[in-house]
Structures
1.
Amino acid sequence: MIYLNAFRLPNRTLSNPNIYPYNVFAKKNEKCLLFDKITILYGNNACGKSTLLNIIANSLNLIGKEEVKAFGLVDYFNTFINECAYELGEDDEGQKYSSVPENSSYIKSEDIMYEVKKIQQEAVLKEGYVYEHAKKGYNKEQRDELKKSKKMHNQIDIIKFCQEKYSNGEMSLQVFDDYLQANALFLLDEPEVSLSPQNQVLLAEKINSGARFFNNQFIIATHSPFMLGTLAAKIYNFDSQDMDVCSWSKLENVRYFYDYFKKHQNEFEE
């Protein structure tokens, strides 16, 4: 399912070349991205991939969006947002969506690490559990009922058990399971952080299944070769001025890994 079909950045340039976020994309020749069920924004640090995810999240008013405070007389961030344009996808009957699903969200690596740290602090487990349901739309009455429920106490026991049994990486995978509901658009910013290569592949396989079987759409910022090689994705290379669509094996970061292990090939064959 494709909920967000396309996103266009503004063409306008400013006389001051250092104004954020105009400066991030000023040298990009291509301003429009077309999305697939899974789309990857690849690039090294400061290439703009994370900034674009937050811009999309603000444009669509997604859960998890990060607002940038204005400094000075002009709110350049929100001005930039208002100059962007997007096109939503179509449902199974060919009708344009009027909005993305309500449970769609922008999930950053620091969000996942925050959840892991929260799990590791028993004193805030209940407060955190209720807070997460408030973010999902539970009103005060529903939250009060949740505090008394057997479901909540059982879930807290499971979290405590996971805390004792699993590593940070394994807990991160469990947190992703909780986040990734069916029928939604998810923007993921470097979800591989804290995950071993094996768990990165497991997460990528979960994402593939979500797109294939659970009507999810994903836009992901990553430069992990394990994610890039496992995801059935369209890949935009943000390191190029034209933001070219590339195969994963042609990307600089992946080639670095390939060349490194090829250089040490004899050591693996001993």
2.
Amino acid sequence: MAKGSCLCGNITFCFTSEPVKTVLCHCLNCRRITGTAYSTNVTVASSSISVQGEPSQYVFDSGQGPIFKISFCGTCSSTLWKESDAKGFKGYHLIQSGSLGEDFSNYQPQGEIFTPFRSKWLPPLENVKQFEGTDSGL
């Protein structure tokens, strides 16, 4: 079981299933959501997540097909996870790995998506599959 929380601790969560996959996403929306060069998404079955607290939510059109709902803390603004009803995403939470605290290092990425948007100063991860879009096939 892995546990996570927002920065202020008002929202905590845990998941009991093993992640389906972990990917780095270089899309422009993930950059904006996280305020970093990419997001690290740990994909787990939604049915395995238990949440304490009430996250705020924001819905946006990714511009690449899926509509996403982002859950975040309304107090400290920490992004916690994303969800979508789009094919390949329905039934899963894309946990923002930074919210996992010490458990973060347990989930090594298997792929990088939206690689054309990768920052020029950031090299590809070695021994990790590279994909130009979301269809990672992982």
